[in-house]
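FORM 12-B: Structure-to-Sequence Request
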């Protein structure tokens, strides 16, 4: 099945010259002079690299079959991230470098959606926000917020470091936006 540039949607996967990409952003451009074109921002499925690419309007690509399966995150060993299918107990490994950004928000034994592209595991789909426990942060001093608040670094249970408001203490759960890595609220 072919996918034309006018059928692009954010999150679609396309095959460009034998390489699978995920469409992060796209914009149809119709200049006053010359033919229309589509400006895109694509993420390579194999290693997570983001590139900008321009295509002629109406250009066709092979649509890539994708499927999300519920799996349990077991552990990351430095080279691969290991997952287990909750129903068949089959284990798979995904190169850690390709999912390093996503692993910052996952704790071992948590359920995630693993994205399979043409029946090969390639990416992890997360909810837009996750709740994680603060394991280390400086105590907020009384009176610090009088100047309008502020932020301090906090280390989460996954090892990720984010900026949190001064009132957040060790042991509290915080909600984090997985797309930007920003503190949202207390959980």
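FORM 12-B RESPONSE
SEQUENCE OUT:
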């Amino acid at each position: 099945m072919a996918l034309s540039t006018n059928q692009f949607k954010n999150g679609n996967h396309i095959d460009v010259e034998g390489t699978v990409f995920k469409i992060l952003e796209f914009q149809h451009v119709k200049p006053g002079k010359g033919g229309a074109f589509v400006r895109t921002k694509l993420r390579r499925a194999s290693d997570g690299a983001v590139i900008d690419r321009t295509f002629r309007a109406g250009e066709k690509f092979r649509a890539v079959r994708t499927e999300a399966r519920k799996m349990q995150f077991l552990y990351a060993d430095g080279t691969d991230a290991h997952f287990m299918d909750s129903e068949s107990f089959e284990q798979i490994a995904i190169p850690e470098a390709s999912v390093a950004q996503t692993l910052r928000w996952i704790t071992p034994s948590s359920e995630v959606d693993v994205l399979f592209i043409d029946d090969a595991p390639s990416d992890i789909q997360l909810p837009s926000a996750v709740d994680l426990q603060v394991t280390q942060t400086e105590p907020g001093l009384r009176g610090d917020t009088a100047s309008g608040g502020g932020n301090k670094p906090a280390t989460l249970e996954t090892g990720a470091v984010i900026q949190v408001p001064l009132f957040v203490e060790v042991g509290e759960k915080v909600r984090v936006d997985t797309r930007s890595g920003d503190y949202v609220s207390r959980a």
